[in-house]
Design brief:
This protein is α/β, with parallel strands linked by helices. Helices cover 52% and strands 9% of the residues.
Length: 272
């Protein structure tokens, strides 16, 4: 598999006040995991393998402790990501934050099929997650006792949905092979999406140019002044600037205006 351009470490603390001052980032992959189960093992290895393959990854590097306020930044990073990877482990269902992330992921997928969810089942079976049985079920019930029934039902729905998606199961001694498969799938999906982005971008620019020339012709026929034509030209230039630039053409490599789903989600469908 060809190596993609490599990025630096993109994990950060979403509760860092400096994060609010930065321009919003868009991510190719969002990792959701229970830190006590997988942070220093599977999650860290998967994260590093993705970054080495050139994938732009969001990973929360901090545990949320009892009594801390849930900041919006972490949940906001989910809809700003293209591929969502929940790593479901024995204690995942007992953590409120993990369950909130998962619920947000499945809501994104329900509302917009362009989001891809790739579940990883670490030392748990999909059936145990789906029906909340076994050790996963015991810890889920223990960790959700203090929440009202409606919230718990929402979490159960999310667990049922994610466990119905074909994902990856971690079996003893085969984690390395599983990580390689996950990275390969992610890279294949992103390459396909990047090709689509180039095609979409070309069509969007062609539409902008067509609209500009039609409007300019109208202004000339109606003998409008130079001021209106200059304004039209400025508006056209502004529209071109808003068109996402493929990341290979950017020097900083950040996925801000060039994220795939901006092209697909924000811009009107181009004329065929």
């Amino acid at each position: 598999m060809p190596r993609r351009s490599t990025y630096a470490d993109h994990s950060r603390d979403p509760r860092d006040p400096r994060a609010e001052e930065e321009e919003e980032d868009y991510y190719e992959v969002f990792l959701s995991f229970c830190g006590g189960d997988t942070r220093t093992g599977l999650t860290d290895n998967l994260y590093r393998s993705l970054v080495e393959a050139g994938v732009y990854v969001y990973r929360d590097n901090n545990e949320l402790h009892t009594g801390e306020v849930f900041g919006p930044e972490l949940l906001n990073a989910i809809p700003r990501s293209g591929i969502l990877i929940p790593i479901l482990s024995e204690n995942y269902g007992s953590r409120e934050w993990c369950l909130r992330e998962l619920t947000q992921m499945m809501e994104c997928k329900r509302n917009n099929g362009r989001y891809m969810v790739v579940p990883v089942f670490y030392k748990v079976k999909p059936a145990h997650v789906r029906h909340q049985t076994g050790i996963f079920g015991e810890r889920f019930r223990s960790g959700t006792r203090r929440f009202n029934e409606q919230v718990v039902e929402e979490w159960k729905q999310a667990l049922g949905e994610v466990s119905s998606i074909l994902g990856y199961e971690s079996e003893g001694g085969q984690e390395t092979e599983m990580i390689e498969k996950v990275v390969k799938q992610v890279c294949c999906e992103l390459e396909e999406a990047h090709h689509l982005t180039y095609s979409m971008e070309a069509k969007v620019i062609a539409r902008l140019q067509e609209d500009y020339h039609c409007e300019l012709t109208r202004l000339v026929k109606e003998n409008r002044g130079a001021e209106e034509r200059e304004k039209l030209h400025r508006d056209f230039q502004d529209s071109q600037k808003r068109t996402p630039v493929p990341r290979s053409m950017r020097s900083d490599g950040k996925m801000v205006r060039n994220k795939i789903h901006i092209t697909l989600h924000e811009y009107p469908q181009p004329r065929n």
